[in-house]
Amino acid sequence: MTERIGKIQTIKGLIEKDELGITHMHEHIFINYLDYFEKPNEQELKMCCLGGGSGSGNSNSNKTIEDLSNEKISLINNHWVQYNYNKNLHNLQLNEMEIAIRELEMFKRNGGSTIVEVTTKGIGRDPLQCLKVSQELNINIVMGAGYYLDKSISQFVQSMTEKQMEDEIVKQCLIGIDDTSIKAGIIGEVGCSFPLTNNEKKSLIASAKAQQRTGLSISIHPGRSQTAPLEIIQILKDSGADLSRVIIGHIDRTIHDINILLETAKTGCILEFDLFGMEISHYPFGGEVGMPSDNQRIEWIYQLIKHGYGENIVISHDIYTKHRLVSYGGHGYSHILFNIIPRMKKFGYSDTDINNILINNPKRLLTIIK
Length: 370
Known about the structure:
Elements: E1 7-10, E2 13-16, E3 23-27, E4 31-32, H1 42-47, H2 65-70, H3 78-83, E5 93-94, H4 97-109, E6 114-117, H5 127-137, E7 140-145, H6 150-157, H7 162-174, E8 186-191, H8 198-214, E9 218-221, H9 228-238, E10 246-248, H10 251-254, H11 258-265, E11 270-273, H12 294-306, E12 313-315, H13 335-347, H14 351-366
């Protein structure tokens, strides 16, 4: 165990912390998100049926809802998929090795070094496929341990105790994920709904206990309420978690009130703005809550830095659907490096601010402390 202290656990093994480089702290390379598919309605079908005009032979007016759900992303349906990305089955799966390599080669070419792959139990985590990508491109990939939302894990954990879940998370970190010898280097993303379910509370407590045994950080997927992060933080604190190594993800779709944001930051946790590139304000999973723009994200992070929280911020894209990949007309894993960092510099971010967000904060969080 002592040989792990001060190092970072990647999919290929332990590395020195200075080998980490520029890091995206919340991404998915392979994932199956079909549990969260929502069937399109008749109105949406009409929107996506492009008539070809008399005699053109290009009409698709006979398209059915089933067709709309299953068709591949194209120029014709691209905007509809962006707006309703949870209603297309093809879009909800990242499962193509060739495309994964192509997309992450672009990330590497633009200066990226490490991807934290936080796909957990219940949504198609695939460490062996991720290992192939890491070996092919010689990039660091850090895998996640633990459990996703109740909807995806109830079949696995309903009859498990907190201790059994804790032991399973520890096993994924110290021995290997599933039937492999590939070890996780972070706990999470730990799925939380709002309100929390009993299984999710067990998962949170188990994750806090596992953190104490492994020396790893915890990455949280909070429920969609501005008060959800504070509730989760309290449960983790009561369970013995080190809050300075707890990352609250999806801040940008969760907290839109600066006072609540600052109250959350005061707990000492890490605030993760991980939806860069998501610029359509409609958020299918958010009810009445809209999705902010990248410019708003840049402004909020800047305000947090000015309040003294520059060492408590990490960023990412959280790509988990095809439409956000360059191969399907999206921004890809290089959007932050290619587009956002130059905008941050124009906004007034210092080199120190940017290095903290991309390199130093991830390095501190991923370094094993016990």
